[in-house]
Every structure is written in C-alpha cells, then in structure tokens.
Write a structure and sequence with these properties.
This protein has helices at residues 3-12, 16-22, 26-41, 46-53, 57-64, 72-82, and strands spanning 109-110, 119-123, 135-141, 156-170, 173-177, 182-186, 191-208. By secondary structure, the protein is of the alpha+beta class. It folds into two domains: 3-90, 434 Repressor (Amino-terminal Domain) (Orthogonal Bundle), CATH 1.10.260.40; 109-208, Jelly Rolls, CATH 2.60.120. Strands 1, 2, 3, 4, 5, 6 and 7 form a seven-stranded antiparallel sheet that branches. Helix 4 crosses helix 5 (57-64).
Length: 209
C-alpha cells in the first residue's frame, strides 16, 4: 500500500477504540428523556428550542434520540432554553440503589457474643454494598435471671425503648430506660443491659460502624 493510500485509509477508518469511547451510553438516554419531556411540558417545538439555545434543529433531534453526547456547553444551553437547572437534565441518572425491606415479625435472628436464651437480636436489614451502613436490630429480653454480656464495638449506637423498663450501663454510667426513652453512645465503651426492671423488654438498637 502506498503512503497516499495508507493516509486515505487512516482518515476513512479511525481507531475503533476512539469510536467506542465516544459512543453514547445510558447517560445520553437520561438526557434525551429529560430534554424531550421538559420541552413537551412547556409546549415548545424542537425548532423553538433550537432557536432558544442556538443549536440546530438536527442537533436537538439527535439529543432527544440519544444518538449524540452533549458537551457541557450544550447542556448549559439546553438548561437555559428550557428554563431549568442543569442538574434537572440528569434527573433519573444512576438511581439504582440498594434497599432492604423487613416486614413486621420478620428479620433474621442474629447471634452476638454472649447471646443466650431470653436474649433475641433480630436484624431489621442491612446494606451489603455499603461498608459503613447502619445496622438496625430489634432486641427482645424476656429472661430476668440471665447474666447479661457487655458489648464493645467501633462506631456509635442508638437505642430507643419500645416496651418494658431496664437499667442500661455504658462505661461507668447507668441509665434507667422506659418506653419512649433513647440513648446514644460510643460503642467502644462497654455497654449492655444491667437490670431488667419490667419484662418483656423490647428496644430498637441501631449501630453505625
């Protein structure tokens, strides 16, 4: 192949990796949906939006069909033409988030160090993709004669009393808790029920590692 032919071939067939990198993706789909929806909501034609933004009608068509990627300048023009903030054009992007539903009476029973008969720690859900997600549990205590363990863990913990009365210790301090009372403390300090004053006892415990 001559040098002239090689140059023509290079011009006609650019590197496929460059083409792939510039190919529209899911974000373009979101922008296309938002531009078209907001344009129609205001009763604006594609030609009118083109005039308002300084873009061609053909470009508006490409944007609304998600067949092109928008530059930041183009996004700014579209937002001004539609009279919305730029962030409105990304609404719906990256909305897949983890969630856990635990129906009443459900939830796995977790075993903690010192857990025994009369101590139930029922997990109310967990987000496995979050390294530092909160861990809510419903704790039920029904055995007043049991010896209660002291727990220690990193992070913080929140307790909200639902039923019964108890003395709860944290470090060298003791707190009497009744329904509606709450306690927030650092998990590194030794903590746990000290005396069960009125059974059964139920409280919500939320740890934040």
């Amino acid at each position: 192949m001559t040098t002239e032919r090689a140059e023509k071939a290079e011009t006609a067939a650019p590197d496929s990796r460059t083409v792939d990198a510039a190919a529209p993706g899911p974000l373009e789909d979101v922008i296309a949906l938002q531009v078209r929806r907001r344009r129609l909501e205001t009763g604006m034609s594609a030609a009118k939006l083109a005039a308002e933004t300084g873009l061609s009608k053909a470009m508006i068509s490409k944007i609304e069909s998600a067949s092109t990627s928008c530059s930041l300048t183009t996004l700014q023009r579209l937002a001004e033409g539609l009279n919305v903030p730029v962030t409105a054009l990304f609404q719906g992007a990256d909305t897949e988030r983890e969630a856990t539903l635990t129906k009443s009476g459900e939830g796995s029973v977790t075993v903690r160090t010192g857990t025994r008969h009369g101590h139930e720690y029922r997990s109310l859900g967990a987000l496995r993709r979050r390294e530092h997600a909160i861990e809510p549990s419903l704790v039920t205590l029904t055995d007043a004669s049991a010896v209660f363990p002291q727990f220690q863990h990193s992070g913080t913990e929140f307790i909200y009393m639902l039923e019964g009365r108890m003395i709860y210790s944290h470090g060298s301090y003791e707190y009497e808790l009744a329904p509606g009372d709450s306690l927030v403390f650092e998990g590194e300090g030794p903590h746990g029920p000290l005396q069960l004053l009125e059974l059964p006892i139920r409280f919500l415990a939320v740890t934040a590692p």
